[in-house]
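EI: anyone free to look at a 147-residue chain?
SC: sure, send it
EI:
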Amino acid sequence: MDKSVIIVCPQCGSLNKAPDSKLQSGNLPNCGRCHAPLFDGHPADLASAEDFDRMIGKTELPVLVDFWAGWCGPCRAMAPEFEAAARDLEPMARLAKLDTERVPEIAARFGIQSIPTMILFSRGREINRRSGALGRSAIIAFAQSAS
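SC: here you go
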């Protein structure tokens, strides 16, 4: 029997069960509720504490979150690299971005003191973190450290 994983839709937040075989085949699923693609090659935008808690707490795939701010030069420099890494890592991991100015309570909860900071979560728990701007290949290697 094919193992399934729970994936939070980045558009509507609903929970979706997707068979591992479908993810590995490249035949990527759409959300059962809003019908948007569950993976579109772009990091998910975590616009609120509720978005963050749902994505981190319910998604069974590793989730790599980029904590950033619009005024941060290194954050802006890393943004296209993070985007490129999302295209390479999906659907085996979810990449997401959290603006620390827009959702300061999450940044405070995780003690974010410098940005950009990436935190890798697995099944709702922080398993690794790294501060500083990275290129695409370093982001991919960091995200793959979950396995």
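EI: The chain is about 35% helix and 25% strand.
SC: 👍
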